[in-house]
Every structure is written in C-alpha cells, then in structure tokens.
Amino acid sequence: MSRYARFLRNPEATGCKELSLDVVADMIRYYANSCMVTGLYLVKLLKMLWYADALSFKRYGHAISGLVYRALPMGAAPVSYELIVGLSTVHCEEIEIGDGTGFKFLPMENKEYPYLSSVDKEILDTIIQRFGKVPTSEIVELMHQEDAYIETAPFDIVQFKYAQTLSVS
After folding, report:
1. pLDDT in tens, 86-125
2. CB-CB contact of 140 with 46 (8 Å)
3. What domain count does the chain have?
4. Helical H segments across the chain, by residue range
5. pLDDT tens across 114-156, in order?
6. What pairs with residue 157 in β-bridges?
7. 115 within 8 A of 23, measured Cβ to Cβ
8. Which helix (H) or strand (E) holds 130?
9. Which range of residues forms the domain containing residue 40?
C-alpha cells in the first residue's frame, strides 16, 4: 500500500478508484476459480487484471481494483506486481519453466467474492470470455496494439484515458 501513496491524488493513474488489496485478491481468485481460464500464470493474470480495470473504466468511469499500471516490455503490469504472489488469500505455485521460474495461480475452495459487485463480476466474465483460453503470448501481442501501451513511454504509468479506445468492449 505504501508504494501506492504517491498515486492517491492521480485519478488518471488509479482509474478513479482507491486501491483495495481485498478487491485485487477477489479478482485473482475469481479468475483462478473459473473453469474457462487456462494457464493462469503471472503475466497472463496481470494482463487480465489490466483489461478488467480498463474495461470497467471505459464502461463506468472507474477501475475495479485501484491498481496503477506501468508499460513494461510484456505489456501493462501493476506497480509492485511481484507482491501479488504473496497475497495470503490467493493460491500461487512456483513452477520451474525452462531456465526460470513461473508463478501459476490455482483454484481455491473459497468461491466467495465479497469485495466484488455484480457489475465487477460482469466485467471479469467479459474478460474471461475474451482471454480465458487465450495463450499469454497472444494477450501480450494484443496489449502491444492497444493505444494505452503505444502512447505510453516504456516504464511510465499507463493513463486510464486510453481505455476509451480499448479493443475489448
């Protein structure tokens, strides 16, 4: 939370939403518990979080989570994304992949999402329908074609104003 303090008065960075780690954890579990989502590794998860926040902003004028995203080489990723794997209410497994390590998010018995509204779940379902079975590489490729990524300098904060031209509707 302290890494987000500097963004509190920047609605273009936060999507007009205050960060809630409870909401973020519910979003992750919602994705991980969906039978329509395959291969939910960290990079795919980060893109799906961004698309959900951007679509919510496009439709309703505010993000779901309050996460602030940077334009990284693999696409938009939340500030301090590496800490997501440590959230106590999500189940993440470290897996050896080639020469490195990957983080795979797994289903949990807990199917309650008290911090998500029905509108939030509708947005998440839209993202699941679009990206749930899509390989990470395709999502990254699509992200690189979004105005939000094209118009943002590498490693800068992605402004939510670009959600208006989002390819997902």
Report:
1. 888 899 999 998 888 899 999 999 999 999 999 999 999 9
2. no
3. 1
4. 11-14, 21-33, 42-60, 118-131, 136-143, 147-150
5. 999 999 999 999 999 999 999 999 999 999 999 999 999 999 9
6. 70
7. yes
8. helix 118-131
9. 2-165
